[in-house]
Amino acid sequence: MFQAAAKTFWVASTTPREILSTIRHYCKKTPTTLRVSEAVSGAGLDTNVKVQGWVRSVRPQKTHLFLHVNDGSSLQPLQIVASSELNNPSLTFGCAVEVTGTLKRSPHQKQPVELEAHQIQVVGECNPVDFPFKIKERHSLEYLRQFPHLRCRTNAFSSLLRVRSEATTAIQSYFKKNGFVQIHTPVITSNDCEGAGELFQVEPSSPESNEDENFFSVPAFLTVSGQLHLEVMSGALSKVFTFGPTFRAENSQSRRHLAEFYMVEAEVSFTESLEDLTKVMEDVFRSATEHVLAHCPEDVDLFHKHVTPGHRETVDSMLKKRFPVISYTEAIDILNRSSEKFAFPTNWGCDLQTEHEKYLVKHCGNIPVFVTDYPYDLKPFYARDNQDHPEHTAAAVDLLVPGVGELCGGSLREERLDLLRARLEEAGLEETYSWYLDLRRFGSVPHGGFGLGFERYLQCILGVENIKDVIPFPRVSHSCLL
């Protein structure tokens, strides 16, 4: 009864103009929230929309205010046009804003659309004096590396992150289309399949733990590779892969090394040919690169134009030609016949260094090249013995690429129980890898696999020299852990 009386009083005491204004307010359509990429592409044209993001530029004029706003969904920002009355001191470069207005076609050729702002709300302020990135400066990747917590705010690094995301999607898609089953291999493990001993040991931090006992009863480490676990799974699922973090406790500050990085690894059963492995390596590379070029053209162009000018020609050349295959013996012969002065020796039996790998790539036309059949003693215990004499090589293969050197490393696996046991005995590892011998005892088949360094792949297609510039948070020795 009271509510009815209140309604009667409100209608009786309100003018027709006020009633009409109230009705319009409640009937007004709620603005549609758009991502910047959607707005720039013309979605929601001539409608009331809301955009949220960070201010990339501010240009106040006498009667108008111009802003560029981006939310990380695209390289191209959205231009905001507003009355100068909406300007305020907290509207600065780097601040976070929420803008409501009408999306219109732009009269200027530089942008297809613009947002005529009715309201601009500063959500998060940013002091442009203290902010390490300046509005009209193009900062180098080396400078950005000093601010791992802020560098995603820049065009270069946000482009890198979008490329990285698309490359991840492309690799996952390739394996799915080709019948591979994804396996989540453990991060904590007791094995060192690389045999280099560069391991991070895992121990509980609890003060109550007994320092004389291992948490898992045996020493445990962060994984250097998921390969051995993939081999387990390939005994039941003929094509498997994993894509995850791996760790190396290598105390290096070089442009090539990280303590934590990502690896794409695959294992294929019922194969006795390195050609089966090289085909998958090459197809993964081509498929992922073509996908990235098609879905991130502006982001890739930013690197090819401003970071590594001219590198697009190298990428196009890599995609046009088949990858040549040479043996390790042929590679050593090429190096020995060259006039290049190498810092490391090039005699047969030596491990190929980065300088050797880059030279071989240039010699083969500056496109990726496969090197096969390495000396047996250079490869881990699981690499298949070619049983060739007198050279004695293993059925192993590396993919070398421009600007990087080794991108992929793989081999056929030793499936013959007697040969594998003999090698493990020689290394004193038979007891440690007794479970690995079981894989050969119960339904073993010829198989092989490889690993691809994801960050090195990104370096290759973008032309980035330092591996720390292609990963969100570079983990190196003496680095700051956020």
Write the layout of secondary structure elements.
Layout: H1 2-13, H2 16-27, E1 32-34, H3 36-40, E2 48-60, E3 64-70, E4 78-83, E5 96-105, E6 113-124, H4 141-144, H5 155-177, E7 181-182, E8 188-189, E9 221-222, H6 227-233, E10 239-247, E11 260-269, H7 274-295, H8 297-307, H9 311-320, E12 325-327, H10 328-337, H11 354-363, E13 369-375, E14 393-401, E15 405-412, H12 417-427, H13 434-441, E16 447-453, H14 454-462
Parallel strand pairs: 1-2, 4-6, 7-10, 12-13
Antiparallel strand pairs: 2-3, 2-5, 3-4, 5-6, 8-9, 10-11, 11-16, 13-14, 14-15, 15-16
Helix pairs in contact: 5-7, 5-8
Describe this structure in words.
- The protein is an alpha+beta fold and 482 residues long.
- The chain has helices at residues 2-13, 16-27, 36-40, 141-144, 155-177, 227-233, 274-295, 297-307, 311-320, 328-337, 354-363, 417-427, 434-441, 454-462, and strands at residues 32-34, 48-60, 64-70, 78-83, 96-105, 113-124, 181-182, 188-189, 221-222, 239-247, 260-269, 325-327, 369-375, 393-401, 405-412, 447-453.
- The strands form three sheets. Strands 7-10-11-16-15-14-13-12 form an eight-stranded mixed β-sheet, with helices on both faces. It has a five-stranded mixed beta barrel with strand order 2-3-4-6-5.
- A hairpin with a 3-residue loop joins strand 2 and strand 3 (64-70).
